[in-house]
Design a protein that fits this description.
By secondary structure, the protein is an alpha/beta fold. It has 20 helices and 14 strands. Strand 1 and strand 2 form a beta hairpin. Helix 1 packs across helix 3, helix 9 packs antiparallel against helix 20 and helix 12 packs across helix 13.
Length: about 525
């Protein structure tokens, strides 16, 4: 396999110097091409390769052979984002230079390598490096390359493909308002301590509301992620309440932070399979209790709660809960084979879903017909609903996917499933966003000092993710408004043009209602691997 560059820099790498501890050896680009072709290193390199384990040798050959599905436009756009800068800085630590231009030179080689007709590869980027001599620290390379995965790069290609028509023009929009700014209502909060005696469930619920609350607007119920708390989307709850929506943020006792703490102390399981059933049932119970509140004399919310017209917003595991209550059929039977012996290669989100295989029935239908629309932020969906479960979602659904999400990878957890959901539906893509980016900083654990691994770390949170949360406020508000008499006024915020207008250099946003053919091809490539 020969690497032929379409536009080679005047000074391009001809020799690679590989350092492993105090040992160093040179290998030419031509010899590397032969390694890719044969899988064998040259005889002159044996004294070097003998120092490596078989796993390390296989990792080198595999990395050189890997074709990453990303074109030059996508690569260039990615490297301009915050997550792209982090990737670039990580890769630059592999290259030894006397000056500090490593990241800049590496950026040039990555962009040039992405122009290759046969696709981007590690070898093509090495050959494109703008220096005749390239020195690599192999110990560092092992660490960095283990953190890279093909699914991540496929997601970048998909995000670029879902809105290619936007690249060549500026959106011309007339916005009725700035939906990222608070509404006119003065927000108040109070907490309900609810008990479902039939299921022995204590359900604390935070209520957000304002003096502009009206029965014309749907009640909004928040369902949190695994091991989290009900305040994880507090900024969003306050924003919606300022526009007259009443928001109920509940805490699920079998999958919240307190349950995680008890599990670590050995007092309970980390997650019981029944929790997949309890969580949607928790929402239905809360709606029942809000209806009682709606009829309570002299209560400030009396007559203002549209409990027959509810929108559910779920994050992560809560996104899966939202899909369940929207009609997606939970199919634990299908998990028995899919999860058997595969736990080591699954994402964290998939590992959690596998617990549902312990449920006794083949399938469960947990639809609550009072729920009229849902928002699923970075949801789990790849395994728990089997091949057909998402096809029974009955209501308008907005799914948000973050391109650098390691916990619930976008392609497997959101994008593939999105194709199975009937219309009407919206898919929002956050290029450069990570799993924790949409969470409120008050409920987000500091990531300082946490390792960056293939399964976790590298999170964009807090102030770094402020633009993402700002965009989320606008689109969720607009989606909730679709259940009100003001639906038409807010439709503009649920368009590809608004996503482009709201995009920043660090975080390009995408929004589609159907997946274009070019982007669907990326999904098919993943499915066939």
């Amino acid at each position: 396999m020969s690497v032929q560059l379409t536009a080679k820099p005047s000074q391009a790498a001809e020799t690679v110097v590989v350092r492993y501890g105090s040992f160093a050896e040179s290998i030419s680009i031509a010899e590397l091409e032969n390694v890719v072709k044969t899988g064998k290193f040259p005889d002159s390199f044996k004294s070097y390769t003998n120092r490596l384990s078989e796993e390390q040798r296989n990792l080198i050959v595999g990395a050189l052979r890997t074709k990453i599905p990303i074109n030059v436009v996508t690569m260039s756009n990615l490297l301009n984002t915050q997550i792209g800068t982090t990737i670039l800085e990580d890769l630059a630590t592999v290259i030894h230079r006397e000056d500090d231009a490593g990241a800049k030179a590496l950026r040039a080689s990555l962009v040039l390598a992405a122009t290759q007709p046969k696709g981007f590869s590690l070898l093509s980027s090495i050959a494109a490096y703008p220096s005749k001599r390239l020195e690599i620290d192999l110990n560092q390379a092992f660490r960095v390359f283990k953190n890279l995965n093909t699914a991540f790069w496929q997601t970048q290609q998909f995000m670029s493909a879902i809105a290619p028509q936007l690249a060549s023009r500026e959106p011309q929009l007339s916005l009725p308002m700035d939906a990222t700014q608070p509404g006119s209502g003065k927000v108040e909060e109070f907490t309900l301590d609810l008990n479902d005696d039939k299921r022995n469930r204590n359900l604390p619920v935070d209520i957000y509301w304002s003096d502009t609350a009206t029965v014309e607007k749907p009640v909004i119920v928040f369902t949190h992620g695994f091991g989290s708390v009900r305040t994880e989307l507090r900024y969003l709850a306050s924003h919606l309440a300022s526009y007259g929506f009443v928001v109920a943020a509940l805490e699920h006792p079998g999958s919240n932070a307190a349950n995680n703490k008890a599990a670590i102390e050995g007092k309970t399981r980390l997650l019981k399979p029944q929790e997949f059933l309890h969580r949607p049932q928790d929402i239905s119970f809360v709606i029942d209790e809000l209806e009682k509140l709606n009829q309570t004399a002299d209560h400030p919310l009396q007559g203002k709660l549209a409990t027959n017209k509810v929108m559910v917003v779920g994050y992560s595991f809560g996104g899966g809960t939202a899909l369940s209550i929207a009609g997606a059929s939970l199919q634990p039977y299908s998990l028995k084979q899919r999860c058997k012996g595969n736990l080591a290669i699954l994402s964290f989100g998939q590992g959690i879903q596998c617990i549902a295989h312990e449920l006794p029935e083949k399938s469960y239908q947990l639809r609550d017909k009072r729920v009229k629309s849902i928002v699923a932020l970075n949801p789990t969906s790849s395994l728990m609903f089997g091949e057909t479960g998402l096809g029974s979602v009955e209501i308008p659904t907005l799914v948000l996917a973050s391109s650098a999400d390691k916990t619930n990878p976008a392609l497997t957890e959101q994008i593939i499933g999105f194709r199975k959901i009937p219309c009407p539906k919206w898919l929002v893509g956050i290029v450069g966003g990570t799993h924790l980016s949409v969470k409120d900083p008050i409920a987000t654990i500091s990531q300082e000092g946490k390792p960056n691994t293939p399964l976790s770390g590298g999170e964009v949170i807090g102030e770094q993710a402020a633009d993402i949360r700002k965009f989320v406020k606008a689109i969720v508000l607009a989606f909730a408004a679709q259940l009100t008499p003001e639906a038409d006024k807010y439709k503009v915020f649920l368009t590809p043009d608004y996503a482009q207008l709201a995009s920043t250099k660090e975080f390009p946003f995408r929004l589609v209602t159907e997946i274009p053919d070019d982007a669907a091809t990326v999904i098919e490539q993943l499915a066939n691997q």
